Amino acid sequence: MEEKTLHANILFVEDDTNLSMILKDYLEMIGYSVSHAGDGDEGLSLFSSKKYDLVILDIMMPKKDGFTLASEIRTMNSQVPIIFLTAKNMKEDRIKGFQHGCDDYITKPFSTEELSLRIKAILKRCNFADSQPQHDTTTHFTIGHFNFDSVNLVLSSPDTERRLTRKEANLLKLLCLNKNTLLSREVALETVWGENDYFIGRSMDVFITKLRKYLKSDSGVKIINVHGIGFKLEVSS
């Protein structure tokens, strides 16, 4: 069977607003197209409206719980992979999840890296080849009243010009490429440092602090820390 080459369409049904926003941003950042529903009824409506390559469901939701929703999805499509993402971690709940047709069962708390790897493994088993995003060749960025030249490592404003180190420039470029969306710690570490390690992670936090200092003269530019998850470069329009 010929593998698909488009990015996977994911339906994500979760009633926790904060978790939904963080995970949706993360999954879209790594290349997936994500539709979010806040309850079971909305989830079923979205699933009926278009084709999805994978479904991620919470269990404890208003209007319709995840077990019921999974069963209804299975009556409509017996092949689409389903992942339960839930705080219910009892053995009986796991068994019930698989009885309702799920392909994987992940308990909270979890790491975004683990979720990403499980999604890729399931899509691979389903003969879905998720193409990697093309390398972005953009080299000049506008960040509020700053201009950033990532090739010459220069961050300038009407009043100042600062030459960055290569690591500072690479990290700032990655933040710019993901402006106003969540950049996960794992992606930043792997992209800029080439590995994900606790001590390197602490070093990255120091670099983030430096970048905040460089950008502080523009109140419309902020690097937000989402604790334990990642960072977001917020730039007011």
Task: Describe what you observe in this structure.
By secondary structure, the chain is an alpha/beta fold. It folds into 2 domains: 9-125, Response regulator (Rossmann fold); 140-235, Orthogonal Bundle (Arc Repressor Mutant, subunit A). 41% of the residues lie in helices and 22% in strands. It has 8 helices and 12 strands. The protein has helices at 17-29, 40-49, 66-76, 91-99, 112-125, 166-177, 185-193, 198-215; strands at residues 9-13, 33-37, 54-57, 82-86, 104-107, 140-143, 146-149, 154-156, 161-163, 182-184, 221-226, 230-235. Strands 2-1-3-4-5 form a 5-stranded parallel beta sheet, with helices on both faces. Strands 6-7-8-9 form a 4-stranded antiparallel beta sheet, with helices on one face. A hairpin with a 2-residue loop joins strand 6 (140-143) and strand 7 (146-149). Helix 2 packs parallel to helix 3, helix 6 packs across helix 7 and helix 6 packs across helix 8 (198-215). The longest helix is centred in the C-terminal third of the chain and has 18 residues, at 198-215. The protein is elongated and about 65 Å long. The N and C termini lie far apart (46 Å).
